[in-house]
Amino acid sequence: MDNLQGNTNHIMKGYLLTDLNLDGKTLFTEPGNDTSLLMGNIILHPLNPNFAANYIVRGGLSQ
Question: How far apart are CA 22 and CA 61, in angstroms?
Fold first, then answer.
């Protein structure tokens, strides 16, 4: 279902590309959100010594 009101606590259900922790829902805010996981992986990446929020993590899935 679409987030017609633009709520930041809207939960999108399903294993979507935005479901980073694979719990079956995408959540932008609130505890257990997917945004914190993404930002944590970027800011705390070992090759990001300046903790830049716009750091680009290079990589991908092995084939």
Answer: 16
Which tokens is 6 given? 């633009």
- Separation CA 57–CA 47 (nearest Å): 8
Sequence-distant (≥ 6) Cβ neighbours of residue 27 within 8 angstroms: 9, 11, 12, 33, 34, 35
E strand or H helix that includes residue 12: strand 11-13
Task: Name residue 11's beta-bridge partners.
Answer: 27
Distance of alpha carbon 54 from alpha carbon 26, whole angstroms: 21
DSSP state of 15: S
Tens-place pLDDT, residues 23-43: 999 888 888 788 888 889 899
